[in-house]
Design a protein that fits this description.
By secondary structure, this protein is an alpha+beta fold. It contains 28 helices and six strands. It has helices at 3-33, 43-52, 57-60, 62-76, 86-99, 103-112, 121-139, 144-150, 158-170, 179-190, 195-200, 209-223, 226-232, 234-252, 336-346, 353-360, 375-380, 382-391, 414-417, 422-432, 439-446, 456-466, 476-484, 488-493, 502-513, 523-526, 531-546, 550-563, and strands at residues 283-287, 299-302, 309-315, 322-330, 395-401, 407-413. Helix 7 crosses helix 14 (234-252), helix 9 (158-170) crosses helix 10 (179-190) and helix 22 runs parallel beside helix 27.
């Protein structure tokens, strides 16, 4: 027998001996756990094993630990007889051994996962694995993340934009009208010197239900690709992990169950002083005005008269005036109570005058809107509309299409409007786009032979997204089939922005925003083309602009608040 053969035999015998020793150790452990000497382990007898392996009931919470224990027992009990034999125990033991290196992250994940019985075993285990991996990733996050973000430049991938949309929501910053504007806001956020610290010390107690709901919606497409992102897009994966941990912790903290009397009010109408979204262990954020009142470009400056105070400044969309949107307090110098005292004694300073004026600005009554196209209801609100016009002064807004096919606002006299409000004219302009659009013309459009006449698929896709279809037509053929279904024009006429969730309306607009990245997709350039394409794009533009009218925004927030 050769020397190599003897060596191989020795290695085999050593491995066999180690395996026997290991089996004896596991049998000894099994015997110790089998308190009633039944030859099986029941659920209660399994508990000491988890504790000895590092699963901490205090860290997991009692409910979390009990749910985890039940799920591990159920997973091991492959025979379904409510007891674990030695063979099943070996598989379970080896599986738990593999998790020991990540035990702290698993303990944290167990504490976060919903313990409700409505969560299936499969969903529970998927969430547990995902949150454990996410917590591990967050703890290992380094400045390499910021370096990777800096290297992206002005051309982020859709996945980077999506994850930063979630981060912007959680930090209380507004979602803008275009991906480019969102990315500009994101760059301002991660260019800050303490971006990583702000993530790791983020104060979840300031989150509100609406933000958490909206962020959950926005994150779903990425969550479905969680494992793929880890391998293919590690930057997006790391930031998504932070989002998931933040959402899970907020849910565990009861944010989704809280009832806040002031939550339904715009920030500027709230009576109490509280640090809000964007607050971290290092800084306390007090928002004077809702961020969506501004055009999206903010900058910061030190308060000249007070140490530890930074002012966030932007330009109001309504009048282009510069105003302070938020005050950032250094929490090493200010408690929340001290910050409230500072605001009470400094709010009358001239630098806050524009913000205070915006806080007090009246808004048009939502009831003056009429999206039902019912003439009788419009007549019934004529007196209220006339009173609103009289109170507004000599000039009021009129929305409509100019000679170039652009949807614009102009100021006109009360006499010219004959007592109608700007809200009435927004609605009328949406209706104007539908004057030449009938079921017959849309059906004829769907029966067109040959290739797309130009923007046909895009115009149908935009309308489909705005009226609530889950998916846009995938081709020109699908777009034609969409047109052949009855009731398409009626679905456009019955779109009632007053009754729509703002979250849902934003989702629809964002779904169709990619089509408008094409600069040729505008009413002005389509006037001489196919009349159906022109009417559809004209209608879509009118809807999108009307969606940002202050009264539509307020109505949408009210719908979201009632549904929370």
């Amino acid at each position: 027998m050769s020397a190599m053969t003897l060596l191989e035999q020795a290695e085999f015998e050593l491995a066999l001996s180690a395996a026997r020793t290991r089996e004896l150790e596991i049998r000894d452990l099994f015997s110790k756990l089998d308190k009633d000497l039944s030859g099986f382990i029941d659920r209660d007898e399994l508990k000491p094993l988890l504790t000895n392996m590092g699963f901490d009931e205090a860290l997991c919470t009692h409910a979390g630990f009990e749910r985890f224990l039940s799920e591990e027992f159920k997973l091991a009990d492959t025979s379904g007889d409510q007891k674990i034999d030695f063979g099943e125990f070996v598989v379970l033991h080896n599986s738990l051994q593999d998790t020991k290196k990540d035990i702290q992250h698993l303990n944290f994940a167990i504490s976060l996962v919903d313990t409700a019985d409505t969560l299936s075993s499969e969903d529970y285990l998927v969430q547990l694995e995902r949150l454990s991996a996410a917590n591990k990733s967050v703890h290992s996050m380094t400045t390499d993340v910021v370096a990777a973000l800096d290297s992206i430049g002005d051309k982020p991938s859709p996945e980077v934009l999506q994850v930063f949309t979630c981060i912007l929501i959680l930090f209380g910053l507004p979602e803008r009208d275009t991906p480019e504007e969102d990315w500009s806001s994101a760059q301002a956020l991660f260019d800050a010197p303490n971006f990583l610290d702000d993530l790791k010390t983020f104060d979840r107690s300031k989150l509100r239900r609406a933000q958490v709901h909206r962020c959950i919606q926005r994150s779903q497409p990425l969550v479905q690709r969680f494992r793929k992102l880890e391998k293919e897009m590690p930057l997006v994966y790391s930031l998504l992990c932070w989002v998931l941990i933040t959402l899970a912790a907020a849910n565990k903290d009861g944010v989704l169950d809280q009832v806040d009397e002031e939550e339904n009010l715009p920030i500027q109408k709230r009576s109490s002083f509280l640090f809000s979204l964007g607050t971290t262990a290092r800084k306390g954020m007090y928002r004077i005005l809702d961020s969506d009142l501004f055009d999206g470009d903010f900058h910061r400056k030190r308060d000249p008269g007070s140490a530890g105070i930074t002012l966030q400044v932007g330009r109001l969309e309504s009048n282009s005036k510069e105003a302070i949107s938020a005050i950032i307090f250094d929490r090493s110098k200010f408690t929340e109570e001290q910050a409230a005292e500072w605001w009470a004694t400094h709010k009358e300073q001239p630098q806050f005058a524009t913000a205070l004026e915006a806080m007090a600005s009246p808004r048009v009554d939502v009831q003056n809107f009429d999206f039902s196209f019912d003439d009788s209801s419009r007549k019934s609100s004529a007196a209220a509309a006339a009173a609103a016009a009289k109170a507004a002064g000599d000039k009021v807004e009129k929305w409509g299409y100019n000679d170039d096919g652009e949807f614009v606002m102009t100021l006109v006299s009360k006499a010219e409007l004959a007592g109608k409000t700007s809200a009435d004219h927004i609605v009328e302009s949406i209706q104007e786009a539908l004057v030449t659009l009938t079921d017959e013309t849309v059906t004829a459009f769907g029966e067109l032979p040959g290739e797309d006449p130009g923007h046909g698929e895009a115009s149908v896709s935009v309308v489909a997204m705005l009226v609530g279809d889950k998916e846009a037509p995938a081709s020109w053929l699908d777009a034609k089939m969409w047109c052949l279904n009855p009731g398409r024009v009626q679905s456009m006429k019955s779109l009632d922005l007053r009754k729509m969730s703002r979250i849902e309306l934003h989702r629809r607009i964002r779904n169709c925003s990619k089509y408008f990245l094409d600069p040729t997709l505008s009413p002005a350039l389509l006037m001489s083309g196919n009349p159906v394409v022109y009417s559809m794009i004209r209608w879509a533009k009118a809807v999108i602009i009307a969606a940002e009218h202050p009264d539509v925004v307020k109505a949408g927030r009210d719908v979201d608040a009632k549904g929370s």
